[in-house]
Automatic annotation (TrEMBL):
InterPro entries: Cyclophilin-like_dom_sf, Cyclophilin-type_PPIase_CS, Cyclophilin-type_PPIase_dom, Cyclophilin_A-like. PPIases accelerate the folding of proteins. It catalyzes the cis-trans isomerization of proline imidic peptide bonds in oligopeptides. GO terms for biological process: protein folding. This is Peptidyl-prolyl cis-trans isomerase. CDD domains: cyclophilin. The lineage of its organism: Bacteria, Pseudomonadati, Pseudomonadota, Alphaproteobacteria, Rhodospirillales. It is an enzyme of class 5 (isomerase).
Length: 181
């Protein structure tokens, strides 16, 4: 009977997306709407419970809605989460490092930080390509499961090079469990 209930519960979380079936946990799935389409991010509380809890808290406060991608480097990553758009801002609450054994691969979502390992706040980045040199030094907390093609279309630019003119932004970010169907 227990196996039947587990299977039934899995079916409850089954959704059709882009013509393919994908099972997900709505409480640990983010929908990030960009100008070109929706990006689905699977959050990993098993890897970084404090980080995932804080990201969900900020998402539910609409903190990320309208925030720009202030640093986007082709072949490397797209960084966002600073409400000032300068790369120096955040939510004002530092997070302890939750470094883990996950690799920085294409679609990995990880926290940005300063030199202090415990300086992550609200800024995060999505890898365009493998970046194993970051492994063990940044908190990996999720992975893009759908919509990476929309991440690829984010306008490239970096404030340090002065090449950010009208940067792309997060239109809206939501925890899947909060989305009215």
């Amino acid at each position: 009977m227990r196996h039947f209930l587990v299977g039934l519960l899995a079916l409850v979380f089954l959704t059709l997306a882009g013509g393919k079936a994908m099972a997900y946990d709505p409480e640990n799935t983010l929908f990030m709407d960009l100008k070109d389409g929706r990006v689905v991010i699977e959050m990993r509380p098993d890897l970084a419970p404090k980080t995932v809890a804080r990201i969900k808290e900020l998402v539910r406060q609409h903190f990320y809605d309208g925030v720009v991608f202030h640093r986007v480097i082709a072949g490397f990553m797209a960084q966002t989460g600073d409400p000032t758009g300068t790369g120096r801002g955040g939510s004002g609450k530092k997070l302890p490092a939750e470094f883990n054994g996950e690799h920085h691969l294409r679609g990995t979502v990880s926290m940005a930080r300063a030199a202090d390992p415990d300086s992550a706040d609200s800024q995060f980045f999505i890898c365009f390509a493998p970046a194993e040199f970051l492994d063990g030094q940044y908190t990996v907390w999720g992975h893009v499961t759908e919509g990476m093609e929309f991440v690829d279309k984010i306008k490239k630019g970096d404030p340090q090079s002065g090449a950010v003119n009208n940067p792309d932004k997060i239109i809206r970010m939501q925890v899947a469990a909060d989305v009215k169907q």
